[in-house]
Please model this.
Amino acid sequence: EVQFVESGGGLVQPGGSLRLSCVASGFHFSLYYMRWYRQAPGKERELVAGISTGGERTVYGDSVRGRFVISRDNTRSMIFLQMNDLRPEDTALYYCMPAPPRGAWGQGTQVTVSP
Model:
């Protein structure tokens, strides 16, 4: 069974940092491009960042480029999202998912940026 477990979210003040983790299972992780997505209340799910199978190529959404860094550890079937200089508009539920998609979305991890 394909599963994703996201963690690392929390409440942080503007300008702060968080590091999100996602553990994947049930598929051959190292063969898949991986992505972080987020969804804020009342908004569509948004692509945040993506990383190639070996980690050599990364892409970022315009709103997070220069502040967030995606990475992966294929030995542990994990991806990470280092989020710096957080802003209130980064508040959302964050999810991971491979490309092409596999299985169901995980429960996500909540990030709240507030004074």
Notes: The beta strands are 3-7, 10-12, 18-25, 33-39, 46-51, 58-60, 68-73, 78-83, 92-99, 109-113. Residues 60 and 66 are 9 Å apart (CA to CA).
